[in-house]
Amino acid sequence: MPIPAAISLPGIPASLLEALQAEARRQGLGLLALVGGAVRDALLHHEHRDPWRGLPDLDLVVEGSSERLAHGLQQQLGQERVSELRVHGRFGTVELVVDGVLLDLAQARQERYPAPGENPVVEPGPLLEDLARRDFSVNAMALLLTPDSGAATAALPLSMLLDPHGGRRHLAQRQLMFLHPSSVADDPTRVIRAARYAARLGFSLAPQALDQLQRTLQAWPWRWRPGEDPASAPPALATRLRMELELLLEREAWAVALAQLQAWGALVLLDPLLQQHHRALQRRLRWAARLQLPLLSALVVGADAPLELAARLQLPHQQQRWLEELADFQAWLTKQVLPEAWRAWSPARWCEALEARPWPPEVVALAVCLQGPCWRPLLRWWGRWRHVTPPCSARELMATGLQPGPALGEALRRSRLQRLEAMR
User: Fold this and answer.
1) Among candidates 101, 104, 76, which has minimal Cα distance to 91?
2) 177 near 206, Cβ under 8 Å?
3) Which residues contact 204 (CB under 8 A, 6 or more apart)?
4) Which residues, listed in sequence order, are joined to residue 177 by a DSSP beta bridge?
5) DSSP assignments along 335-398, one per residue
6) Which of 59, 67, 158, 361 lies 20 to 30 Å from 141, alpha-carbon distance?
7) Contact (Cβ atoms closer than 8 angstroms) between residue 12 and residue 99
8) At what angle do helices 317-332 and 361-370 cross, to 10 degrees?
9) 89: buried, middle or exposed (CB in 10 Å: 19+, 13-18, 0-12)?
10) CA distance from start to end of the chain
């Protein structure tokens, strides 16, 4: 079957591409190109018959001022067609909605890393340098809109495809290839991104990429090591790593992605114990999904040092508090519950024991996810027993002559416990 000479972009109005081309020419800007996932997915669809995954956000790069291009486009088309425009001046990017399509418009940039894992130093640069700073060759392709591609429809000729890193070849091989020998050392979050794409697209790491990943992890080139102050970890092993993990857990088939990370030996980026106990990790996250807990908390809780990992990733403060309280909860179970004949405890006894202390329900649910001793009654408390109410309301008891105060509260507590005892 012949490969089409042009790549169609379903859902993108031809008038939108023409307007972008015309405004870039009017302003005398440099190259304007469609980049990133839209190019990759369009090639997968048209050359390899992958299902069309729907219209993604469109990423465009321009050699010149993205802000000036966006404002000029709004002036030419009017606010009815350009319904939203948000400028992020610090990053040289603009978000705008044109004809109902979300565009991310960025100024072409080049970057250098002052040290492995640190945030890069970014400055304006040519389009080819912008492609060179990306994660994988399949995401480092561009479809040129200028010079004029002659697009009269929402299709772009393959002759306008820029592919300086062999991304088209790697698409055919369904492989992810890093762009540079230091790609993983510069930005280890690319490893998490690789797992995301592996899960979403069914790709694998190219042999050279896997070799780079494993050699980098063995060398550990970053200035921070596990056991050191979490606050001193570089951003790519801290907040940026957390953001990639959140995307993986929220948007991808996380069981597949985590299995890939384990197979590559990459979970040591988080904690060696997570790498060793992958089955327990998968089980924990399945329980967390069932109990509607944040999956990242359930991932972190199985680490050798969960509090340190949570601090390094800068989990939300509430989730960090759950992990702190979980350590106290587990100590309480070990010292005060397990020595007793807890298997004979009634629902009422469990409720009294758990509710006499200020444990948040999420802490008990995390203990369930760990599948330690007592997890079955803890699960019953989480899912059923804690929701049991007294058979009579406070108003009904007051109608019998009880006055508001401690006596009324004690009566409500006893009647609830009686109902729980009947649930044996």
Assistant:
1) 104
2) yes
3) 174, 175, 176, 198
4) none
5) IIITTS-GGG--HHHHHHHHHTTT--HHHHHHHHHHT-TTHHHHHHHHHTGGG---SS-HHHHH
6) 67
7) no
8) 70
9) exposed
10) 68
Q: Is the peptide bond before 147 cis (omega within 30 degrees of 0)?
A: yes
Asked whether the beta carbons of 327 and 305 are under 8 A apart, the reply is no
Residues 278-323 have pLDDT tens digits of 899 999 999 999 999 999 999 999 999 999 999 999 999 999 999 9
Which residue in 218, 199, 190, 365 sits closest to 295, CA to CA?
A: 365
For residue 146, the model assigns a pLDDT of 83
Locate tokens 């870039």: which residue? 24
What's the pLDDT at 148?
59
User: Could you tell me which residues come within 8 angstroms of residue 257 by beta carbon, excluding any fewer than 6 positions away?
Assistant: 195, 196, 198, 199, 248
Helix-helix angle 254-264:189-201, to 10 degrees = 130
Query: What is the C-alpha to C-alpha distance for residues 328 and 312, in angstroms, rounded to an integer?
Result: 21
| Range name among 10-19, 160-169, 335-344, 355-364 with the lowest pLDDT average | 10-19
Which alpha helices (DSSP H) does 145-219 contain, by range? 167-173, 183-186, 189-201, 207-219
The pTM for the full model equals 0.90
Q: Given the DSSP bridges, would you call strands 32-35 and 142-146 parallel, antiparallel or unpaired?
A: antiparallel
